[in-house]
Amino acid sequence: MGSVWGNNFKLTIFGESHGGGIGCVLDGFPAGVAYDEEFILSEMDRRAPGKNRQSTARREKDLPKVLSGVFEGKTTGTPISCVIENTDTRSGDYRNLIDHPRPGHADYTGRIRFHGCNDPRGGGHFSGRLTAPLVFAGAMCKLFLRSKGMAVGSHIASIGQIMDTPFDDVCIPAEQLETLRTQQYPIINPRAQQAMLDQIDQAREALDSLGGIIECAVIGVPAGLGSPMLCPAEGRISSLLFAVPAVKGVEFGAGFSISAMHGSEANDRMILEDGVVKTETNNNGGILGGITSGMPIVVRAAIKPTPSISREQMTLNLADGKVEPLVIKGRHDPCIVTRAAPVVEAAVAVAMTDLYLEAYGYAQD
Amino acid sequence: MGSVWGNNFKLTIFGESHGGGIGCVLDGFPAGVAYDEEFILSEMDRRAPGKNRQSTARREKDLPKVLSGVFEGKTTGTPISCVIENTDTRSGDYRNLIDHPRPGHADYTGRIRFHGCNDPRGGGHFSGRLTAPLVFAGAMCKLFLRSKGMAVGSHIASIGQIMDTPFDDVCIPAEQLETLRTQQYPIINPRAQQAMLDQIDQAREALDSLGGIIECAVIGVPAGLGSPMLCPAEGRISSLLFAVPAVKGVEFGAGFSISAMHGSEANDRMILEDGVVKTETNNNGGILGGITSGMPIVVRAAIKPTPSISREQMTLNLADGKVEPLVIKGRHDPCIVTRAAPVVEAAVAVAMTDLYLEAYGYAQD
Amino acid sequence: MGSVWGNNFKLTIFGESHGGGIGCVLDGFPAGVAYDEEFILSEMDRRAPGKNRQSTARREKDLPKVLSGVFEGKTTGTPISCVIENTDTRSGDYRNLIDHPRPGHADYTGRIRFHGCNDPRGGGHFSGRLTAPLVFAGAMCKLFLRSKGMAVGSHIASIGQIMDTPFDDVCIPAEQLETLRTQQYPIINPRAQQAMLDQIDQAREALDSLGGIIECAVIGVPAGLGSPMLCPAEGRISSLLFAVPAVKGVEFGAGFSISAMHGSEANDRMILEDGVVKTETNNNGGILGGITSGMPIVVRAAIKPTPSISREQMTLNLADGKVEPLVIKGRHDPCIVTRAAPVVEAAVAVAMTDLYLEAYGYAQD
Amino acid sequence: MGSVWGNNFKLTIFGESHGGGIGCVLDGFPAGVAYDEEFILSEMDRRAPGKNRQSTARREKDLPKVLSGVFEGKTTGTPISCVIENTDTRSGDYRNLIDHPRPGHADYTGRIRFHGCNDPRGGGHFSGRLTAPLVFAGAMCKLFLRSKGMAVGSHIASIGQIMDTPFDDVCIPAEQLETLRTQQYPIINPRAQQAMLDQIDQAREALDSLGGIIECAVIGVPAGLGSPMLCPAEGRISSLLFAVPAVKGVEFGAGFSISAMHGSEANDRMILEDGVVKTETNNNGGILGGITSGMPIVVRAAIKPTPSISREQMTLNLADGKVEPLVIKGRHDPCIVTRAAPVVEAAVAVAMTDLYLEAYGYAQD
């Protein structure tokens, strides 16, 4: 299995890139959450391909059609289902790839996993297009989390070698997250943004691609979500972050850097601020012993460079075992990181909703 | 919930550091796996505190008592339960900590999560001692995986700033993993080992602690384990790696470094070697699209420095809201990374068993 | 939660009676199963309201639109999603019911459960219409089970006081199940059928309704499916049978009658027949210790009379606490048992698929 | 898998009849529940074999040793683990049974399921003895439910053909449940009790056995627990009731009888009593649309006669395929129904706790 996630509510995602449609179902989503269509469409837009995000044409293309679970402007508590049509498909481009698995893609592993039966067109169920329903689900979860005083946001921490200014991990204002959400590129430092865009242009010209890192934060988190031992908050969140295509690493707080610190430096000192327990640093990323501390949750996801590059590559012909040149046709982003922020946020928002519902149940007012 | 893990078999871990005992239950573990007690005890020994690992005394202390699930030298297929006694407990040391949460520990978050009812003695259910039953479970899973041609091993990739030679990720011999397993310190490069031990000594003398990174590999993995979308192999493995206390980051293959590569560099080129599909590099760590490729799985876990340090620290007195000095008494390792390798391997072995059983079921011969 | 089921694959059902559409997702369904559309439509037809089952109009109405998971005539192994439009809805009929919960319906409990937010039109998510996607899922599972040599079938064991001839529980020919499947009414004894139809007519004339019992069988079941203790095959199957609306009792083999037997009578004597272990009787309904024995699984589900009756009833006005007369408008079957057989079979087929996949995994040939 | 149950907390049961011990783990059990040892031991006593229930000797035999999860008289919220020693084992009796599966037992199905590796001594993991940890878990859950105003109780509704007076299903006083709990035989009607005991004596003398029915009730249930569609309260409860060995049927409210009613008779009319919504009848057993209504939950479980009878039976010799006489040695109850009430109650109490936690979460006060 693979397309259902959650312990305390369930997200199911379905669809193939060039099939009859893609979509998702949210089962166990709380009742009574106001359905803010404008917000949801703006989230869908952040992920959508192409630049001119205000165009109506774009919106129609990735317009989520909600079939159930919303009634008179509010969630019903019964399954929310959403279907997004596949419109602009050019399946002809991909036929050649069945025997020529693209390097860095799931063409070969998918073939083994599904006995050669999976839909290869446009990557099928493996397509990055499947992140559209994830973003829809994340938008719904953000609406729920907002009703509980939480907000999820992110920025592009790096593209290639270029790094953005990191979050101030002990104090991330809601306004900053909202500003990043509405920027064309969610980057804190404008100079970093220019350097990143330059790098992407160079990669495109070189028929190559680039990866990067998304840094995501959740603020307003109540202390006490998550569990020790086998199901810590980090494990719950990471299990869904690795579901974002191309993510190969996940770290919380100081993450891999904490491994090079001394304890006296890494330990976050506790203080009381306006009657609230906080820490002066946040090297643990808002989670201690698998349980949220009330500090911002800070998590970074490493995204590999788009494996589909325009440059000729060598690959194996599975039919005859020979290594042969391959040119991947079709339209491919030289850097998906610029569109990855809402997807990473969606994964985190879904995981946070699951953690919240574990603590408070569906009957909480 | 938090102490049960698994979709296709279930691991349950229970116990408190100073309670009546700790242990685990493995439900759905395959029938007919030979119970190799010597191997299991050797794994327990790798994790056990203290240096003189050959001593009988040590073995008795962490001796797993198997109550069920093993009959006439083989697993029965019914739940394997194991209890480990708590013997050497000195609860007096920890009483003072209830109102003085230790920085970097779960004292505060545990108190919120469990409404102040959890056992605080020795860290209770949060104690690193709970990794003992995890190592037992991992040892059982290694026996199963071995019967399917797989092996799990690891080395200390770094302690503080000192790095070991990394695995050759396209070819990791079983002998290397076994050698590392039986070394006092699982480090590939002897010079790195000396530098690491020196750093630990310095940290101890400074009443401080150090963190590090464990690099773990699984070899002999069949292609086709795991799933695309929401339950990828990386997500399954990481969800359990974050259950290892002090892990704050997890990465596969080139991990965070892949985010700074170009696609032309990151893409692993496929080849045929002795009739087997392989890749010339392994930047994806043996997993593509959430599914194993047959290449070695390579995963790294970042471990924070032991939060219990001997040096005086400031912390919050939860009773009166004042920041006060705290001296943590008791015996604490200045660097748990030297004992973390078998624990990380255990988490990976348990996750691999779950993935294998999803693919082949309990009825596979 | 409530609309996701399964351990080894997942069925999700969504939709409201008068909403934008209903449907289901099957995640983890095996790859390579031939998609037999004619069979699926014939199953949908068995459940569909109205009598004239051959009409094209009817087929169009409940036509399942498969959006994903089927490619070139076979299942892909990725999620199968199916949407069924709601066409013939007359929401005006039900507006009055919000403050006047219908006796025997979930109007009141649904209101409490979902904080008054659930869609009340036509019963919303509680509507019997939601059994249509269950029948679709069951039809898919029947195709899979058929490829493994299994068949699921049923008959109306009773309506009101009138009983059909029971299955010969030690030998149920596949032909009998197929004959029942294609009959207008799945009843073995023609005289019982006439008496049942007479009773239904009388109930309709009395503005009342009738219940009944469906007896369902699975043949060709391999021995060894299911588990002892907490997840026995009976428990798995019953957990889904109670999801069929109006089911209030489930029994296996001799069921409640076995409680009045002596052990010497109830114990099924084992024999060898053509090299296969069988039993001379089948009082245990093909399941012993929670595990299938290879004998036919025989299970009965008790279905209550349609709670929507045309006759005036008294109910509580939730707005003012007064007991008031209620007349339920709209079209209601006086006996849903005649349409329940494919739904019960679907629940059993889904559960059997889950049990099979637990044993053999997705990688079985 | 089979020995882990629960969505919102997890019960794990382990052990074999003649192994090193049996026990259970409760993960996710709420923190802060007072541990009432006397109550727990009294529940264990109700299930324990033998008659002289007040004897200290008996108590020591099935004494649950709690290893974790209870601290200073209250539950900690971390896993509660309990081990019960196996003391009085006579494995010699059962050796003969490996090739001679006992009719009505799981000997054959267990052999297939576990590839012949399961422990056959005393029924191994299939033994009725495994209900002891279930009763422990149920007792813990009853303590929790009590703290929320709920009570679970039962009586022997029938043994063989003799029936007890049923519960008054619209009003079951807590005192009645407590009285039944402390009676030697939980039977309402003393004359029925005498007739039942007579029947058991006759069965014993005839070297035979008898089955029966347990009727169980839960009172004080809040409205709104459970879910529509695939995970109704009936399905959750029944999935665990079928885990009680020998249960072959489960029905709620009027159960199978409701199938012979008219709708006008079956529909429970709603009324307001002291400001609380109730129904004048309770044919739906306190559950409508899969959701609790606030009325008592009434459920009956049909228990087959003990398959181990002293009388000679024919069975198959699996070694040579011949049908041979078998005499089952050892001590066997001619009717386990007299000890089944606390086990059925335990299953229901565990299921109710799961349903409650789904609604209210672990963070509810």
From TrEMBL, chains A, B, C, D:
Please name the top-level EC class of this enzyme.
lyase
Q: Which UniProt keywords apply?
A: Amino-acid biosynthesis, Aromatic amino acid biosynthesis, FAD, Flavoprotein, FMN, Lyase, NADP
Q: Name one GO molecular function term.
A: FMN binding
- Name a biological process GO annotation: chorismate biosynthetic process
Keyword rRNA-binding tagged = no
Cofactors (names)? FMNH2
Residues noted as binding NADP(+) in the record, renumbered to the chain: 47, 53
- Highest taxon of the source? Bacteria
Bound cofactor: record note:
Reduced FMN (FMNH(2)).
Which catalysed reactions does the entry list for this protein?
A: 5-O-(1-carboxyvinyl)-3-phosphoshikimate = chorismate + phosphate
NADP as a keyword?
Answer: yes
E.C. no: 4.2.3.5
Give, as in the UniProt entry, the pathway in which the protein acts. Metabolic intermediate biosynthesis; chorismate biosynthesis; chorismate from D-erythrose 4-phosphate and phosphoenolpyruvate: step 7/7
What's any one GO cellular component for it?
A: cytosol
Q: Which residues bind FMN?
A: 125-127, 289, 304-308, 331
InterPro entries for this protein: Chorismate_synth, Chorismate_synth_AroC_sf, Chorismate_synthase_CS
What this chain does, per the record? Answer: This reaction introduces a second double bond into the aromatic ring system.
Oligomeric state and interaction partners are given as: Homotetramer.
Provide the family line.
Belongs to the chorismate synthase family.
Question: Know the name of this protein?
Answer: Chorismate synthase
Q: Which organism is it from?
A: Butyricicoccus porcorum
Gene behind this chain? Answer: aroC
